[in-house]
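Cross-check.
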Amino acid sequence: MTTEGGLVLVAEHEPAVAELQRRYLAREGYEVQIEPDPAAAPAVAARVRVDVVVLDLSAAGLPLGLRPADLYRRVADAVRPAPVVALVDAPDPAAARGLGDHRVSRPFAPRVLVAAVGEALRAGAPGGDSGPEGEKGPPSVLRAGPLTLDPSHRTAAVGDRSAALTVTEFDLLEFLMGNPGRVFSREQLLDAAWGPGAGAGSRTVDVHVAQLRAKLGAESPIRTVRGVGYVLDA
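Predicted model, tokenized:
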């Protein structure tokens, strides 16, 4: 099965469970970073550009006094607009309030988790407050040939066909489409899409460009400039 790919932060207190998640997610094409302390997930997510977080919110995984809903909110705020998949104890409708739209009850089958991650990526971040309105209006829709990118709704389409992009793929494509005709080095694209000092290697750019081209198909406007980097042909 082919998935959207992307970087998954697994915040899981049980090493064996974390390793199981890593193996199954990696098998489906995801990059995985493991954080053994779920309470540290907000700080980790603030440093690393992730596409989705798998967050252990079980009672055993949280320090005394930290409510699952509070940790979920901190992580969701740190990674927005990336989605969060909450791993919860036995389903309880009352306890599930405030834990987003993507939840998996423990114990779980690994393939159930993989399916939940894929669904979360396709659906995007859970609903929430969008924050106060700024002085600027919503970003304009970007177009390049048959390719359309809507930054306001975080959607992409090639003609009549929608393209499901990860958070990082979308940010990378948005930057290129916002600067058509300009050639950017891999280092410049790393700073633009991942943020300065993100620590990702230049090979990461090549991998994400390859994934973008696969999703956009023959209509992809991204061109390799040998020895330099990439350019988007308007």
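Confidence is low (pLDDT under 50) at residues 125-138. The CA atoms of residues 17 and 110 lie 9 Å apart. Passed to J.P. for a second look.
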